[in-house]
Amino acid sequence: AQRSRSSSRSRRSRSRSHEEGDASNPGNNLYATGLSARVTSRELEEYFSSEGKVLDCHLVTDPHTRESRGFGFAITETIESADRCVKYLNRSVLEGCLITVEKAKRKRGRTPTPGRYRGQADKQGQGGGVRRGSRSYSPPRRQERDPYSRERPGRSPPPYGYGRRT
Fold it and tell me: 0.70 exceeded by the pTM?
């Protein structure tokens, strides 16, 4: 059993190293975390531009509320300006929050998952309790009728009858 585990581990590490080779950071992509919810992408770009030219800046936001998730990415023109950003802007204060600046692990952000986000997966592995083909976001109903209704098909009448007076 030990042997199969080690071979699967080595296989996994090989695939990861190949993946990192395709998307590894050349050194000019920066990751900033600890950002205030008030910080805009433009303000983040201006903040990083104090240490060199910024080619692109992306603030990560929640897809539903559009609020900042407290981290973002900036791509600088040169590796030297990225190094200066890490050296001088890491553990600095922006909008009253202590931010961390480091080189990102990947060259570019991950591409979003295609399709519609339907919330966290439920116990069956389906998204948010939504049945396939349904446009409703409410959980599936278990019973369509009122459980106390007297009109229940497939049942025999009660032994003493309802509404009969003796």
Answer: no
